[in-house]
Amino acid sequence: MKESLKTLCKLALALGLFGLAWDYARAQTVDARALYQQHCAACHGEQRLGSMGPALLPESLERLRRPEALKLIREGRPATQMPGFGTQLGEAEIQALAAYIYQPQLPAPQWTAADIRRSRSFDAGSRQWPARPQWQADPMNLFVVVEGGDHHISLLDGDRFEVIHRFPSRYALHGGPKFTPDGRYVYFGSRDGWISKYDLWNLKQVAEVRAGLNMRNVAVSSDGRWVMAANYLPQELLLFDADLNLVKQFEARSLDGKQGSRVSAVYDAAPRKSFVVALKDMAELWEISYDPKAEPIHDGLVHDYRMGEAIARPGYLNARRTPLEEPLDDFFFDDSYRHVLGSARPGTASASNLGQVVNLDARRKVSSLPIAGMPHLGSGISFDWQGRRVMASPNLKDGRISVIDLKSWELVREIATPGPGFFMRSHARSRYAWTDSMMGGKEAKDTLSIIDKQSLEVVAQVREPGKTLAHIEFTKDGRYALASVWELDGALVVYDAASFKEVKRLPMSKPVGKYNVWNKISREEGTSH
């Protein structure tokens, strides 16, 4: 009996090794492109630019690791139209298909102004929709919740903590939704370039356009007239009107045209009536004014601008360049919006130049920021501390919160946290700031740390053992703090912001972010702008 068992084991091993060898040999002859055209092109486009499904380009797959991509091809994605191909394709074919979608598209794909305009859709009947909410709740205390697990948006009543409406979104929304000044409309941007305009009061989509093939984020002007999109691919900025008609393209290139760059971030600077733009590969910061009275732009040296000794361009809807020592990946505005606090990524800058303070009026760097690691300044907050105005930023690399004096630009304190974090939030009416450690691995990602803004000490923690707990947002009045359990079978957890006790829990599918209308449009000091 034992000899028979040994023989069977040897035979199984031999067959297994033969199977692996057969798969390997087969992988060398698999026509991955033909496989893609047969099984994937109908949803993801013949050129992998996306269609009903997302774009499958290396630029679009930066955050999708190969093992996860293989799993998706084999098993599909739950609650979506992505089927699994594990029963139709062999392992060698699945491996070849995964390798194919990570290969650069040659020649490099283009997305022209004509492509943009052809992609636009608009509901002409939207002009007659009622100019008041068609539901019973405070429209200023509405939360827009992005559920990344099944690509939906939930609209949450911030008083009763009940879902008013839920609707599908584009794949992989990124950069946070942006609201018009009255809170009626919200714009969503997806990684593969789609911008969607949604009427929150009537619960209907107004317009949609594809701005590019790989997009970082969108910004909406403080007067609600303009929408700006920041692209990685193609490398450009796009200006749209409020109904997503293309108005202007800005190629992200140096003044002499020799260097191009991906656009890493664009934000609205409301008091300046302008958009401020960070460029990932070029040591410049751009400011594009939407004020018709903007001063002319002089790109060259000027002895006396009144004498016309340099050729000026109109300041309205043109880029004003600020030269930098290093490119900025992300940034934070001080309260006056005169200064940008920005950071480069480690490896692209020396330690002394990692953080920079840039004066937008003087158009130059005025100080370095003493921040190590990988600060996530775009998620910073500002508040008063001992008679001084400070900002606090989480760190993507280290378990620390850096607190910076907004006058002297000096480091006030570093606050230890269980691990690196991505988001930090507070509210003007709360004495506490909440921060996650979601980048810290299994020993830290389940913990939110609560910091007293006067003592600058961690005074409490809340946990979701074994899960990822992240992204806090406060209600309009600051009484409650909402956190996300970042899992497919996740939840939105409502905490009392003073006692830190759980008040309510709503099941949701990986609620990656939640955004309170009032906090966003009022530029509440405790939330990102």
How would you describe this structure to a colleague?
The chain is mostly beta strands and 529 residues long. Among the domains are: 32-102, Cytochrome c-like domain (Cytochrome Bc1 Complex, Chain D, domain 2, Orthogonal Bundle); 113-128 and 172-193 and 202-282 and 284-290 and 318-323, Methylamine Dehydrogenase, Chain H, CATH 2.130.10.10. The protein has seven helices and 35 strands. The chain has a five-stranded antiparallel sheet. Strands 4-3-2-35 form a four-stranded antiparallel sheet. Strand 2 and strand 3 (152-157) form a beta hairpin. Helix 4 packs across helix 5. The longest helix is centred in the first third of the chain and has 28 residues, at 2-29. 42% of the residues are buried. The model is unreliable at 11-27 (pLDDT under 50). Pfam families: Cytochrom_D1, Cytochrome_CBB3. Keywords: DNA-binding, Electron transport, Heme, Iron, Metal-binding, Signal, Transport. This is Mono/diheme cytochrome c family protein/DNA-binding beta-propeller fold protein YncE. Residues 27-105 form the Cytochrome c domain. GO terms for molecular function: DNA binding; electron transfer activity; heme binding; iron ion binding.
